[in-house]
Amino acid sequence: MGKGTLMIETRAADDALPISGVRVVIREHGRILADMMSDADGNTNKIDMEAPDREHTLEPNDPGPRYNTVEVTISKPGFVTTVISNIPVFDGIEAFLPVHMMPATSANQQPEHFEIPPPAVEMPGERLMPGPVDEDDAPGYVTAYVGQAGQDPPPEPYILNEVIVPDYITVHLGTPNNTAARNIRVPFREYIKNVVSSEIFPTWPQASLLANIHAIVTFALNRVYTEWYRSRGFPFDITNSTQFDMAFVENRDIFSNISQLVDQYFNTYARRIGHRNPFFTEFCNGTTATCPGMSQWGTVTLANQGLTPLQILRRYYPNDLELVESNNFQSITESYPGTVLREGSNGPDVARMQRFLNRIRANYPLIPLIANPNGTFGPDTTAAVKAYQEIFHLVPDGVIGRATWFSISYIYVAVTKLAELSSEGERIGLGAAPPASVLQIGSRGGDVAELQFLINFISAFFPMVPTVIPDSVFGTGTRDAVTAFQRQFGLTPDGIVGPATWNRLYSVFRSIENEIPVPPNPSLPAYPGSPLRNGSRGEAVRTIQNAINAVAASVPGIPRLTVDGIFGNMTQNAVTAFQRQFGLTPDGIVGPITWERLIREAGGTGGGTAPPPGIPPFPGFYIAQGSVGGYVLSIQQALNRIAANYPSVPRVAEDSVFGTGTRNAVIAFQRQFGLTPDGIVGQLTWNRLFETAGGL
Fold it and tell me: Would you give the distance in Å from CA 57 to the centre of its chain?
């Protein structure tokens, strides 16, 4: 017998929050192998377990058994208990089981049970994989495709202008027309890791693993690029049916060697030379199922013959196939600089990673602090990188290569997005009781903004609820998200927000808020702990006065102040004017909601972090319609550079006047890059705008 290992990671909010103190019990055929708790970073110890020798996994006709199986129970008060059975354990393979901890929304909530099926390579049956099938990889359709009712033949797919690596992919857990099946939103890298772990054996030669990874990444990007399902009216990107797409198993374990390879190559895809689109990489196991594309078992034979991953792919697909990288990420803008960073390295790329690691540390406290993040890679940076790599299943060498760079960038986006959501909740200021309004398609205004905040916050913890654009307009996207929420929580799925849906939204939000404390956003000055009012003195008052002046520079009606640290009548009047302007209670007192809104409207000037290297410093106030001057001209020039590469962003006149045309271009830019489409250039839009323009 051989030996494999398994560890459990317990996290929430797309890996932004580790959940500590979770009890994990591992059983093998009813016998308890381990009973342990997760640590501050949400990880358990690694547990050794017996497994059949790996030689049984290398031949398609070996009678086996090929692997061992165990059952894991994960529980913590306040969260849904999860039981996962038939978790495979392979000889010589380390595996980790990522568990998405969902808050319990009722006192008597029943445990959720999941069973891991055998790898798809062992399953019998044909794989249809409808898609392009002609020699030039032009759009074509196989007759086996079953589209929506009335679609015969299916419509031509919509083709995106660019090959985008999405931050998330929406997976339908069933065949396309199974309307009872759920949709779940999965980070793209984690989706690829899951599919590879669900399709093949982790014990195969590395060239074979890589050939399969490239084919799986390419297939997924082809579905996204052609909008294969969305162009047919389906609200998802891909299914987990091996009849139509690739295997994806909810709540399964991931093999560490596969995880490390995917971290390195999740944005590498195959295309034909001279073509832009990801090639349609159809595949099957090559034994019980055959197809015109790649044989999964055949890749093992070819790898043992010494072929490279690209040579293996060319045996099954056209000879002019090439492997390319896409750095067109939907949310992660920090493209790998191409140079490994290690102790002794210097420069803005080091400073960026140091800043990211220190921010991630607020959520993952076992990462040591980089005391002086000055762009010099010293021993403290090495220690922080090693700790990060240990937590996230990377090779713990203390070096920032391609895989570690992208992993840090991804987790940084996740933790900052959650902090922004939490801050947005403070800004909205939910009351004790939900609104009395009834919202539906066509509704607008503050109650819709509150609804959209609740949906987006809940979505971070319940991936079956899709996110929405927070534009205060109840459109089809908001309706679909409301419908998904209603289905998940046992309400009539009519897409209308009445009293029952409002009450359920509030109760689910409060259950998350009570069970999962979100760390404060360290990029904003912390609220001093008690309200500031007439008579207050000190550094916190100076912070408020600076912020008032920053906002007053672009918002008429708010008076400027002398920054003296004394909260007198003038400061009270200015705070009252600010509160009236931004829809807050005009009492002239700076409590936590006014503090947070004021700092955000000022662009974090009271003590925010420095801009990323290469980006001009944010001026300290919002720039919006009606603004004039040099800052506006710089924005217009950046927009025009971006418009030359992104057709969705219109060109503007470079006249230093922020008019309707500039506002519309800013909104188009914000929509293209996943920002709130409000037409206002705050610090987030400013940084993203100039970072994007500088990379073109």
Answer: 33
In the chain, pLDDT over 90 holds for what percent of residues?
51
Query: Using CA atoms, how far apart are residues 196 and 249, in angstroms rounded to an integer?
Result: 10
Q: What is the pLDDT of residues 172-194, one digit of tens each?
A: 999 999 988 999 999 999 999 99
Identify the burial level of 591 via C-beta atoms within 10 angstroms of its C-beta, where 0-12 means exposed, 13-18 middle and 19 or more buried: middle
Angstrom CA distances, 299 to 194, 283, 286, 315, stand at: 19, 11, 10, 9
Rounded distance, CA 517 to CA 160, Å? 39
Give the largest Cα separation in the chain, rounded.
Answer: 85
Report yes or no: 352 and 373 within 8 Å, Cβ to Cβ.
no
**In which band, very low, low, confident or very high, does the pLDDT at 106 lie, cut at 50, 70 and 90?**
confident
Q: 375 is in which domain, residue-wise? A: 348-412
Query: Prior bond to 153 cis, omega within 30?
Result: yes
Q: Which DSSP letter does residue 74 get?
A: E
* Sheet strands (E) in 13-102: 17-18, 23-28, 31-37, 47-51, 68-75, 82-89, 94-100
**Cα(43)–Cα(302) distance, integer angstroms:** 37
Residues 440 and 405 in one domain: no
Cα gap 117→240, rounded to integer Å:
12
The domain total for the chain is 6
Q: Could you tell me the sign of the dihedral formed by the alpha carbons of 528, 533, 537, 541, in that order?
A: positive
pLDDT in tens, 424-433: 665 566 667 8
User: What is the secondary structure of 441-477 as a DSSP string?
Assistant: TT-BSHHHHHHHHHHHHHHHH-TTSPP---SSB--HH
Is 658 part of any domain?
A: yes
Interacting residues of 293 by C-beta distance below 8 A, sequence separation 6+:
129, 215, 281, 282, 283, 284, 316, 317
Last-in-domain residue among 480, 514, 548? 514
The answer to whether the beta carbons of residues 23 and 87 sit under 8 Å apart is no
Residue 663 has pLDDT above 80, yes or no: yes
Angstrom CA distances, 640 to 4, 162, 647, stand at 55, 18, 11
Here the CATH number for the domain that contains residue 634 is 1.10.101
Q: Which of 160-169, 243-252, 441-450, 535-544 has the lowest mean pLDDT?
A: 160-169
**Token reading at 291:** 């197809």
Q: How far apart are the C-alpha atoms of 394 and 386, rounded to whole Å?
A: 9
Q: How many CA atoms lie within 13 A of 26 on its CB side?
A: 21
Closest C-alpha to 487, from 457, 510, 506, 464? 464
